[in-house]
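User: Fold this, then the next.

Assistant: Folding the first:
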Amino acid sequence: MKKIAFSLLAVVAAVVVVLVAQKRPHEISVLPLPVSVQASGDEFKLSASTGFLAEGAGEAGRIAADLEAEFAARTGLEFTEPQQEGKNILFVLEDGDENGSEAYHISVTKDQVVVKAEAPAGLYYAGRTLGQLLFQQGHSWVLPTCEIADAPRFAYRGVMLDVTRHFFTVEDVKRFIDRIADLKLNTLHLHLTDDQGWRIEIKSWPELTAVGAACEVGEGDGGFYTQEEFKEIVRYAAEHYVTVIPEVDMPGHTNAALVSYAELNADGKKKEPYRGIKVGFSTLDTRKEATYRFVDDVVREISALYPAEYFHVGGDESRVTEEEDYIYFMNRVKPIVNKYGKKLIGWEEVANAAVSSGDVIQIWKDRQNIDLAFSKGAKVLISPAEHAYLDMQYDSTSRIGLHWKGYVELDRAYNWDPAEVANVEGDEQIFGVESALWTETVENFDDISYLTFPRLAGHAEIGWSPRESRDWDGYTKRLVRYAPRLEAAGVAFYRSPLIEWN
């Protein structure tokens, strides 16, 4: 009898353990890491009658419909008209979130999912989070019950794509936007002009694309975006709450312009097309009035194509421009940018000019330019090459990439902080964080994928998540859980040996 009683007790104990285990909170994994997550150990089960609803029309309704389409594609469920008392997912816009337009709150119970935000961007980012929470349990698709409150650390979280060394089509850029938006990055900086090619139509200077767009690094044919194509990129990005900021690099990195128009050269002669990767050999003639007519037309035409408040003037590595001429040039360009309703962003060398409050200096190499920018009232955009340049090789075996700033494995890409780079206590003087993909060795979308992902996920977390919450071990676990999203999107990402992917 004692043996029977003991056996029954063991069975009961085992059943209790199983039941407790079933109620254990599902491990919630989101990239970038939210501010606050509380799991409650149950599930919201999707069915064909699950409704994706929005209070009011407009953007909230579109975001709900887009999430419905995404979930239908992933689950195979054919969502029908929602039942009045069914288990629904509700998107609500409401005023009063002190954390700003990108903040959101998600409440998942067994019976419903409620998403709240002050602005559509917050609802959109909540949708990105729900996409990561969805998982298959047996034959069912479920969301773990939880409460998530979230908001970004920095208002500007960007990535630069160089389309000059190698040109990428509108469709490639759209695919890139899909992926960066899924990581809650909100800015795409397009590097549109350089020595190798001019990639944006300027109707008042047609030779820029007729001649200057015709080559790239190596043997390719180059290419360019018409103004209508550029507006299509801007439109598509806006649907994903991504702002496009164009860069026209000057006065250096301008050989493609000098190939196109002799009057921009000091000697009045056209330059030869360039297919190499050396930098610092070209410059506009900063003392010719023709140069400023050119700049005015370029800024005027491009500024009319997009709504963002910033225009990037480049300004880096202008090594054959005398310092006095460089400063003179930038001091004349800044008012042109302002005249067309834009504020100035420039690479760190621009800090030597008469920048002021409202201007942004993008730091990539020399820390002394941070102090110089601060002394003039400008803010800094943090893009340290040794951490944030996506064109750096992972290690000596990387199939493409450069390593002039060393190898940048996933740990080096993740284990740094913008405030430490800027040597400040708080974030007030930091405009934001931006990764940069230069494309000397990048020829197609698989190349973009290989160098960008998954490093960009770490940069996204640096820009979004609270500094004190981030840690390498937790990040790597979440990265493993995020990898299937990259696989499903056909992203040929780098499988670092530092990560236990299986």
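Now the next one, as you asked:
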Amino acid sequence: MIFSNTNSGVKMPQGTTPSAKKMRHRRKPDYALALIRLVFLGIVAAALLSVVPVAELSQNGACSLRLGVVCAISLAALLVAFSLRKAYEWERVVVLRLGKFHKIRGPGLYFLVPLFDHVYRIIDIRIRITDFYAQQETLTGDSVTVRVDAFCFWLVWDPQKAALEVEDYEEAVTLASKAALRNVISKNDLTTFLARGDLIEKQIQQEVEMQTTEWGITVQHIEITDIQIPEALQDSLSRIAQAEREKKGRTLLAEAEIAIAKKLEEAAAIYAHNEPAMKLKILSILNEGLKAGNSMMLVPNSIAEELETKDVFGLKALNEIKRTKKETKK
């Protein structure tokens, strides 16, 4: 994915502007709440008309006392109707009364005292994901320039603190994450980043939580998504990794040969004290060679002489048959 707007605190996909981002989080028109307000106003209007007929509200074209009372009641009903609000399940509403913190409202319907209560901010308590990165290449502990991209999973657990302790808690989380990322990069070397990413993520999370806990925000997880290093260093690391793999391969081969030698040593000790077992092993080897369909087999003289003397394969009988055939032909 291609990212733009690299000078901002939060990266956004190419073609996305801050205004478009705000539009995605804009609240949709609440038709249910509007219907409730209309029903309430209708009930008040019907009650007033049933008590005071329209013909009695005016006398000789001038507003009477009854008309003033009806207007006052209608205005009060209108204020009450528009003081009824609704919050979704994942929203918490910070209400101020005469400039001071009053209460956290929601979810569901809630009522505001007209002219006294004010909705300062609506806090989303769901888990959010913020992507962040160091604005410029940072030096690691072993003086290697790297660029690290990461995600921060966080949520608001105290809406009151998030609204009153910090001006913009979303931007504050982003800036705190970036600062923690730069600090962790400078404290660790490149090998740690490549081999122990989980350790780096925990260090970043701890540093961010030290600041955000006071704001009523907790960081659940930090995930490193990309580590960019110079191309020249990438070639060096590739050669080092290849050499390490070759070293491990040769080491494993040597260990296998040692294990095989130990087993052969044990087998030789057994065959040395058990002559029938040794002979059976020799016959087994010859049998495997014959099964393979080999037309010629190389056998040591000592083994061939021993097999001939004991006529294991009927070699003597075969030689006698050949001799008799030759004599008869003569």
